[in-house]
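During the no-cost extension, the postdoctoral fellow (Dr. R.K.) reprocessed legacy sequence entries with the updated structure-token encoder. One reprocessed record is reproduced below for audit purposes.
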Amino acid sequence: MIEDFQKLTVSLRGNIEVKTNIIVFTFKGQLDAFSEKQFKTFITNTLKNDPQPFVIDLSKIDFLDSSGLGALVQTSKECKKLKIGFSVVGNSRVAQTIKLVRLGDFLHLKATVEDALIYLKN
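Re-encoded structure tokens follow.
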């Protein structure tokens, strides 16, 4: 487990933790046009050598724009292609944004990391 959040951009930090064979990526800050490339690279580089189910925890994200949503959609499509299970967790602001564009089911949106872990184990 990485104790401190890694600085991905000026406005985005990331952390990785493995919980019972499921990777939990936790991000804080802003997921937007300035950080979406580093967001995708952070996830891709981690899964490159050992693809396994994962959770994207956005509960500490302050701001999510259309570029951030696009990064999540691209991640979802990659997972489908590679047959890797994943789930997204968001705070009320992030969840509202995801639901507003009707991507909740597509991104397997869950309320908590625990709910996402249960979903991926089943």
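The chain has one domain: 6-121. The first strand starts at residue 6 and ends at 7. The remaining legacy entries will be reprocessed before the final report is submitted.
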